[in-house]
Amino acid sequence: MSIKPLVILPDPLLRQVSEPVANIDSRIKDLARDMFETMYDAPGIGLAAIQVGVPLRLLVIDLAREDEPKQPQVFINPQIVESSDERSVYEEGCLSIPDYYAEVERPANVRVQFIDGNGKDQEILADGLLATCLQHEIDHLNGVLFIDHISKLKRDMVVKKFKKLARDRAPAV
Ligand code: NI
Questions:
Q1: What backbone phi and psi angles, to 5 degrees, belong to 159?
Q2: Sign of CA dihedral 75, 78, 81, 86
Q3: Which of 4, 58, 102, 156 has the highest count of CB atoms within 10 angstroms of its CB?
Q4: Would you kindly state where each structural domain of the chain is located, as residue ranges?
């Protein structure tokens, strides 16, 4: 197990569309374990494989609070098959856009089909924070970020800030 480096805005990897997972083999199980370790270390409540540089349709979520037992959930090839007309608003953040938060409006409930960590087909009707988190993470699999759901003005400001940070981080040559 190991903590993986996170892919940070404006890395173009974040705009890549991830490929379906074909086989749930030991490589995928190891990747999911590394993703949990990376997410818990950050800390965060959701992580998509592309955020550790792997363009596969795999995400991990754990919504347990700090004082609760861990509730790790693996979603492989997740698909939203139904979204409610009812909307809800949550303040979202993203491990690939550190220290930036903004309110995002999304469908309040979603029905999601996926394969779990044991290779079993599953379907859930998610609401509340899980619904928002699943939509945020599934967006990552399609190269979409939560800042795409805010105003262009705000988004441009965030992207500009992270481009500058990336430049400042780059080693001088
Ligand atoms: Ni994110």
A1: -60, -40
A2: positive
A3: 58
A4: 12-169
Predicted confidence pLDDT, tens digits, the chain (173 residues): 799 999 999 999 999 999 999 999 999 999 999 999 999 999 999 999 999 999 999 999 999 998 999 999 999 999 999 999 999 999 999 999 999 999 999 999 999 999 999 999 999 999 999 999 999 999 999 999 999 999 999 999 999 999 999 998 877 66
pTM of whole model > 0.85? Answer: yes
Cα(11)–Cα(128) distance, integer angstroms: 30
If you compute the radius of gyration of the chain from its CA atoms, what whole number of angstroms results?
16
Contact yes or no for 64/71 (Cβ under 8 A): yes
* Distance of CA 87 from the midpoint of ligand 1 (Å): 20
Other beta carbons within 10 Å of 103: 11
Query: For this structure, is 137 an active site residue?
Result: yes
Fold of the CATH domain 12-169: Peptide Deformylase (3.90.45)
Q: Which two tokens stand for residue 51?
A: 């955020």
Tell how far the Cα of 168 is from the centroid of ligand 1, in angstroms: 23
**In contact, 95 and 50? CB cutoff 8 Å:** no
